[in-house]
Description:
- This protein is an all-alpha fold.
- It has one domain.
- The chain has helices at 7-22, 27-61, 65-73.
- Helix 1 crosses helix 2 (27-61).
- The longest helix has 35 residues, at 27-61.
- The chain starts with 6 loop residues before the first helix and ends with a helix.
Amino acid sequence: MNSPIPLDLQAKIASWRLRAAEGTLTLEEMKEAVVFLRAGRLGAATAAQKTAATRKKAIAAIPAAEDMLADLEGL
Length: 75
C-alpha cells in the first residue's frame, strides 16, 4: 500500500524523531517540522471536507424509513 506521504518527507520525519529522542533537535528543525506537518494536516482537512460532502449526498439519496414501510404496506 502506498503512503500519501512522500518518501523524502518520511525520511525527514524519521530524522526529526531520532534527533528529538537524542535531544539534539534544534529549534529551527522543530519549526521546520511543524511547518511540514501542518501542511499535511491542511491537506487532510480538505480531503475530509470532500468526504463529508460525498457522505451528505449519499445520505440524501437514501429514502426515509416511513416511505419504505408505506411502499411495503401497499404490496
